[in-house]
Amino acid sequence: MDIRTLTASVSVSPQINPEDVQTLKDQGFRSIICNRPDGEGSDQPLFDEIAEAAKRVGLETRYVPITSGKVHDDDTRTFAEALNALPGPTLAYCRSGTRSATLWSLAKADTMTVADILAATKSAGYDMGGVVRRIANGGATPTDRADASYDVVIVGAGAAGIAAASSLLSRKSDLDIAIIDPADVHYYQPGWTMVGGGIFDAPDTAKTMGSLIPRGVHWIKAAVAAFEPSDDAVILDGCRVIKYKRLIVCPGLKLDWHAVDGLVATLGKNGVTSNYRYDLAPYTWELVREMKEGRAIFTQPPMPIKCAGAPQKAMYLSGDAWRRRGVLKDIDIQFNNAGGVLFGVKDYVPALEKYVERYNANVNFFHNLVAVDGAAKKAWFDVSKPDAPVERVEMDFDMMHVCPPQVAPDFIRVSPLADDAGWVDVDQATLRHETFENIWSIGDVMNAPNAKTAAAARIQAPIVAANLIADIDGKAPVAQYNGYGSCPLTVERGKIILAEFGYGGAMLPSFPKFLVDGTRPSRTAWFLKERMLPPIYWKAMLRGREWMAKPEKISVS
After folding, report:
1. Where in the numbering of this chain does the Beta-lactamase hydrolase-like protein phosphatase-like domain appear (predicted)?
2. Domain shared by 52 and 161, yes or no
3. Catalytic (active site) residue 307
4. Distance, CA of 226 to CA of 462 (rounded, Å)
5. Which among 34, 94, 403, 487 is annotated as catalytic?
6. Within its chain, how far is the Cα of 523 from the centroid?
7. With 90 as the cut, is the pLDDT of residue 383 above it?
């Protein structure tokens, strides 16, 4: 038998035989649903044979036959009624399991999210892309028409999405563009490190979304449920269908707070904070200001994460604040990094190591945060050193700054756009989708091997805009991405190590070495971070003014 689990209470399988029923009983199943009509195949046992075998071992059964390829709304209701009436766990079967998986997907459409349903069926080996509109419509068959259609649809109104829209309009002002995003507020997330360090005020990092969407661009204030790239359609929650000629996917990534046991319950109290959330960054500074002694833990999860330097930025700024107040000698700083290096580009490591020594911080590699008890002020880490068994260690803390694990959003990971790891699958030079030629992706959600930073999105947006316009004109891609990313490492108040790099760790400095030497702490770089980058973000990047971000043309050999 090929039993595939959808949930703890429902599994599906291809055709079973009467002799399989005892095994199902032994595995804990209490009921069986047959979704295959009798007589569909010459080697197929009748449902009555299955039912008789089930009766002998005490299993209940239901016969809900479905003609292949014809799952009607009434069939879904009948299947749901059977599931509700039968004791679980339940096994549903048909010829291959697909009809049973489809019925379950539609029956659960009003109680589970589209992403959760698609994830469960995908994990079981079933593709529900053909019924995704029905799932989004609560399981019922929707009308087969688009609610709206645009030249370009952009999923996500973060830094990447708004910058892409503005860059497109600067090249072709008559484009009919729509941005899909349910958020009311747009955040300048690179500023949150400075909020946590007592330099910026949190409200200065936020603006209303409506004030930033470029004039003439349609803002569809809704969440995406799924993609139908074969039909050039985006399905929204509630089953609205948005059609496109070309699509840019840039919804950012998901902060997976729930991946750490106990973390959600203690965030914002018990000394547990994170600069990765707007409302918590001020709490970071409050804790730093009030701390006079004790242990402060700073965590970094496995890659990829947005702004890989942010976890240690928090440590450096906190250490500098304690040094200035004269209490550093009484504070035990622990930097627990799930990875094996301080920073991924080796050229910047020596200067960073000097600051680790300056703040007398202990760097613990291969330490991944897995659980927190905030009230008890305890944290647990899995230590996964090379060629050694995983060891779980417990650490007490007085303050802990957490960087959460990060993954692609659920609706991306289960979509046809994703690679095996769940990220949007693109060509790393043109940022065009590897399978669907009218789709591009930028920002944190795509799988190019670059750092996930706002600076990367600032460079990517004009590249995709140029290549998309070239595609409209019937031309090949005209611009290429070299993997540029930037991480201004705030090593102390007033000084920054400006890390700029591309694919393979190649250094890509924007300024002459005499002005800013990225391998050394610099006051000039601090001035750039504190005074220049916020207005560049708000007034240039988001408005299509490509200062220091002109696309690199593809060289023709």
Report:
1. 2-109
2. no
3. yes
4. 26
5. 487
6. 34
7. yes
